[in-house]
Write a structure and sequence with these properties.
With 308 residues, this protein is mainly alpha-helical. It is 71% helix and 0% strand. It contains 14 helices and no strands.
Length: 308
């Protein structure tokens, strides 16, 4: 039982990292008032580009960077549409998802089902990773796991303790007041969506380069939608997003562990577990007054300066 618990906890960070990276990107976007429903497609493109770069001989970290840049590149039309031309954010995000999913499938045929070297676990803590139960979880992970956790803390500090973070939050809460105070609303929104696109692309690249060392079409498998729910669960807080990613990642990591233990539950029911958890969390959050109060006041609405 202890071995199974150790194995499950050790696998959890690998499952939570792509969710945390995508959730951090979405959180920045939504703090600026932009609802980005293109996350599923951007992750798919990031995963494909990361795999293609690895197969071309790029190192794992360079391949992760290529996936992040692909996320930014495919999001540029979305940024222009919703920030510059004030297009409706929901259809623009869904169009982005469809375009990116199609692009990953069309451009990734040569990279499909071909294994490649990925991120290795760090060996800095060889003595500590033998600690009972939690040693493998805390001290035997690849570098991107630790980078994502540090990013969450830095983003939280930036949002809550810096003037620019305060301005970004003001843009998402009341852009008219922020504009009247001299804040360049469009510039902050463009910056937030740009950084978010890099993080979401990196989240997709981690699935192929860090998680499975292979790319197949459809490997994102709804994790982008789970990241959207995770932002609501975290009440737009980067620190709470860590706990939420651990919860959802833990549910994903549980599936192969139960199968390895020979638990006789149909595989399709086990595969539904993260999505059932997502729906349950969203229902609970719908009844939470605190969650509703945490939502940025201008989320999903186009700001037109003449209307202030």
């Amino acid at each position: 039982m202890t071995m199974a618990l150790t194995a499950w906890l050790g696998a959890m960070p690998g499952f939570m990292t792509p969710l945390l990276l995508a959730a951090l990107g979405l959180l920045l976007c939504e703090r600026a008032g932009i609802l980005n429903l293109g996350v599923e497609g951007v992750m798919a493109l990031g995963a494909m580009v990361g795999a293609a770069a690895s197969l071309a001989g790029w190192g794992p970290w360079a391949a992760m960077g290529a996936g992040a840049l692909a996320g930014l590149a495919i999001s540029l039309p979305f940024m222009a549409a919703v920030v510059v031309f004030r297009a409706p954010q929901i259809p623009a995000g869904l169009a982005l998802a469809a375009i990116a999913l199609g692009a990953s499938a069309a451009l990734g045929r040569e990279a499909s089902h071909k294994p490649f070297p990925g991120l290795d676990n760090l060996d800095w803590f060889d003595e500590l990773d033998h600690l009972p139960v939690v040693g493998r979880m805390l001290f035997r992970q690849d570098g991107m796991v630790y980078v994502s956790l540090i990013l969450a803390v830095l983003i939280a500090l930036w949002l809550m303790r810096t003037r620019k973070g305060l301005r970004l939050r003001a843009v998402g809460e009341d852009p008219a007041t922020a504009d009247a105070s001299g804040v360049d609303v469009q510039l902050y929104q463009l910056g937030a969506v740009g950084v978010a696109s890099l993080l979401i692309g990196a989240a997709g690249a981690y699935l192929s380069v860090g998680g499975s060392n292979i790319w197949t079409e459809g490997m994102v498998a709804g994790r982008g939608w789970i990241a959207l729910a995770l932002v609501v669960f975290a009440q737009w807080s980067p620190i709470r997003a860590i706990a939420g990613a651990a919860l959802f990642g833990g549910a994903e990591a549980l599936i192969p562990r139960l199968q390895a233990m020979g638990v006789e539950v149909p595989v399709y029911l086990l595969s539904m577990l993260p999505y059932v958890l997502t729906i349950a969390v969203l229902v609970l959050m719908a009844f939470s007054r605190r969650a509703r109060q945490a939502e940025p006041g201008f989320l999903g609405r186009a700001y037109i300066r003449q209307d202030r």
